[in-house]
Amino acid sequence: MKRPTLFLLLGVALVAAAAPMALSAxxxxxxxxxxxxxxGKEFKFGLSSKSAxxxxxxxxxxxxxxxxxxxxxxxxxTPVIKPGKSATIRVRLRAxxxxxxxxxxxxxxxxxxxxxxxx
Length: 119
What we know:
Blueprint: H1 3-32, E1 33-41, E2 44-47, E3 51-52, E4 55-63, E5 72-73, E6 76-77, E7 86-93, E8 96-101, E9 113-118
Parallel strand pairs: 1-4, 3-9
Antiparallel strand pairs: 1-2, 4-7, 5-6, 5-8, 8-9
């Protein structure tokens, strides 16, 4: 067998051997990151899930109300956004319970708050 052919075969074998490891790492990265949809309107939140596994959680907030709102959890908040707009925050959370709320004055008191559980 000629040298260039041997090197080509070795290269193909290495790529084939590395592919399952790369897929495994990609799957682990997807498992470590969770996405939760959050809708806000007067005066409540709706979450696509009330809990998630610990790790990085992406909260995708959509304002479905008629007033400006935001979403805050564990010290991180979206900007206050206009009706019909959306914003995203990423938060790394450990197991436990986390309060979330709208920081617009009076909104949390009116019902825009809750508890998110991380397991």
